Amino acid sequence: MNTNVVPEPGNAFAPRRRSVLLISFCTLISAAAQILMKVGMSHVTKLDPIALATNVPLVAGYALYGVFCLMMILALRQGELSLIYPIISLAYVWVTVLSYFIFHDSINPLKLTGIVTIMTGVAMLGRQGPE
Questions:
Q1: Which residues neighbour 1 within 8 Å (Cβ) at sequence distance 6 or greater?
Q2: Angle at which helices 14-41 and 56-78 pack, to 10 degrees?
Q3: For residues 80 and 52, what is the distance between their CA atoms, to the nearest angstrom?
Q4: For residues 51 and 83, what is the distance between their CA atoms, to the nearest angstrom?
Q5: Contact, 18 vs 82, CB < 8 A?
Q6: pLDDT tens per residue across span 57-73
Q7: What's the Cα-to-Cα distance from 11 to each of 14, 17, 18, 91, rounded to whole Å?
Q8: Please, are residues 11 and 39 in contact by the beta-carbon 8 Å criterion?
Q9: Is the backbone of residue 48 left (phi > 0), alpha (psi -120 to 50) or beta?
Q10: Whether the predicted pLDDT of 80 surpasses 70
């Protein structure tokens, strides 16, 4: 069974584009998982295994992390690790934005600079063509 991905003639960017779109969606899944875990843990008063196992937001967060891992596997099948892995850093951006709205976390100039730096770096990586 041949597992090498051969791009369709005239569409050399298709596998790369699919991987980038998939991993971009993964960042949203990862951010949602982290938010759910935070919500779940905010209700925990002591580390009781039964309480943790029945904590719906916490379990849902870890389930989304599982989905994230499966989607990563799919994205890595066709994409370049050196391109895909840095895109995952967009999860930091989504978590910061969601935390601002959901938990009323502050966004100071230093956080904003970090967000802009991450987004600029990911955009620069996305602009490179296949070698």
A1: none
A2: 160
A3: 37
A4: 40
A5: no
A6: 999 999 999 999 999 98
A7: 6, 10, 12, 29
A8: no
A9: beta
A10: yes
Q: Is 8 helix (H, G, I), strand (E, B) or coil?
A: strand
Alpha carbons 53 and 2: distance in angstroms, whole number = 42
Is the torsion defined by CA of 114, 119, 120, 126 positive or negative? positive
Kindly report, residue by residue over 18-49, the tens digit of the pLDDT: 888 899 899 999 999 999 999 999 988 888 99
Which of the two residues, 63 and 125, has the higher pLDDT score? 63
d(CA 47, CA 45): 7
How would residue 17 be classed by pLDDT, with cut points 50, 70 and 90?
A: confident
Rounded to an integer, what is the distance from CA 97 to the centroid of its chain? 14
> Global pTM?
0.80
Q: What distance in Å separates the CA atoms of residue 78 and residue 4, rounded to the nearest whole number? A: 9
SS3 52: helix
Residue showing tokens 């050196």? 82
Residue 88 CB: number of other CB atoms within 10 A? Answer: 17
